[in-house]
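Take a sample.
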Amino acid sequence: MLDKILVPVDGSKTSLKALDFALSLAKKLGSQVVALEIKIAYAPTVMDQIKEAKKAPEDSIQPLRLAEIAAHKATYDNVIYKQVVNTNPAATIDKVVKDEKIDMIVMGNRGLGVLGGLLMGSVSTEVVQIAKCPVVIVK
């Protein structure tokens, strides 16, 4: 029934909570988890570069690496890690749902995003509106 669960990850606490929830559910149901990182294609400003340089080393861990660590901690290995570069996260999620024949999306209600934490909120709202499969929003 739920053969594949898609989890968009951006490294935020809520996306990692969503991943933990999806891993727990997948473990019980024998589902495959698809961890998806969407790199936003935009030209970084000088402020973006300064902000990036000030990050602590642990803040620089890539979202898919964090997803691998979470899957390892959950002792679950039926996980695919996928990275896409695009400017429209919701449309990308919708395309991956269709291409990968996803049965459910589990995502955080807010993420890191380009707009300092506001992006994933708007992305999750849009995904709920366009998705043709169930969407679980994790707070």
Q: What stands out?
A: DSSP finds five helices and five strands in the chain.
